[in-house]
Amino acid sequence: MAFRRKSMTIAEEDAFVLTFEELIDEIETLPEYQDDMQESLAMLRRAVCYNVPGGKQIRGRGVVAAYRALVDEPNYDTIKETYILGWCIEIFQTCFLVINDLIENSENRRGKLCWYLLDNIGDIAISDAHLMSGVVNIVLDRYFYDKPYYPDLIKLFHNIHLTTCLGLCMDTQSSKTGGSEGYSMERYSKIVKYKTGYNSFFLPVSCSMILANKTNEDDYKEIEELVLEMGLLFQAQDDFLDCFGDPRLTGRFGTDIAENKYSWLIVKAFEKANSEQKELLLANYGLGKQSSVKNERTVLNIYKDLGLLHDYRKFEDATYASICDRIGKLGNRIPTSIFAETAEIIYRRNK
Q1: How far is CA 208 from the centre of its chain?
Q2: Rounded to the nearest 10 degrees, how much is the dihedral formed by the CA atoms of 288, 291, 296, 297?
Q3: Which superkingdom does the taxonomy of this entry point to (predicted)?
Q4: At what angle do helices 264-272 and 217-244 cross, to 10 degrees?
């Protein structure tokens, strides 16, 4: 379920949702594919409708909120463009989630079965993810091709796509090697920076800045460290909720322990564990399909014995305080409300 943004009126939230429906209706009426590809287009529509809505929509709605803060009196047309860009980012992010669920053998996403687990889907989910990525390109071409900032927009999406792929590659490789090569918070932070920070927080703000024609290079540098720290907090929260969250709120059952994920909790555990606890972690963590309830309970109990729940809360509070401090030091050209609202939304989240 989407997080409520105070900076968006109820009417704007309704218009944001309606824009998604309009974009989806266009998928099956793409003129260049009308004659031969109706069946495939219908399947693409089904994939987008199943996978994209229902999330937190922090990224998509963040474009709208940021643009409103940057422009004093936005008109209807440009606000509509923020809705479209917001959904482009939501679809963009979903492409990675669909593939990631398959790689990690996840069962649930956003309160329902993962796409690849549906009848007759399986590995086709990879193809569907690439098709959804194509939808983003088509939407950007259709609505922004004649805009003077179009090259900047396309370059941004291409750069973030590569950055995210590199981060996911590093994450997957680290999860394969796991404890055999040790765990470090430095490596974890690097994974999160590229896997989460740029696509979840830098991309929405950058889109709004391009749309508002406020693309000063110094401004980009000023916000980059701030939004990447938001990404670090956001990913650590996801890692914590995977193990200790309520599936009724998160919409999914945790898989990090079974799938050997390079998570904040396991990294912190290896920082604090004694040799006996490390041996137990190595014996029970990352067993894949062989992982049992007993294995997972053993790992969770070690986390608790090491005081990781307390450590996590301290980390969350300290990181939030650091983010707020960075926000307070922003230059006058960048409205602080862009970031303050997002920081407030993600702080102490439970889903």
Answers
A1: 17
A2: 180
A3: Eukaryota
A4: 70
pLDDT tens figures, 219-262:
788 899 999 999 999 999 999 999 999 988 888 888 999 999 99
Token pair, residue 102, equals 């398959």
pLDDT digits (tens, 9 = 90+) for 24-33: 888 777 666 6
The answer, as to whether pTM is greater than 0.70, is yes
Residue-by-residue DSSP string for 236-252:
HHHHHHHHHS-HHHHSS
Q: Name the pairing type of β-strands 108-109 and 112-113.
A: antiparallel
- Could you tell me the sign of the dihedral formed by the alpha carbons of 171, 176, 177, 180, in that order? positive
Type of residue at 217: E
Distance CA 350, CA 245 (A): 7
Amino acid at 60: G
Q: For domain 10-346, which CATH number applies: 3.30.70.260, 1.10.600.10, 3.30.428.70, 3.20.20.80?
A: 1.10.600.10
Residue 223 CB partners (closer than 8 Å, separation 6+): 202, 205, 330, 334, 339
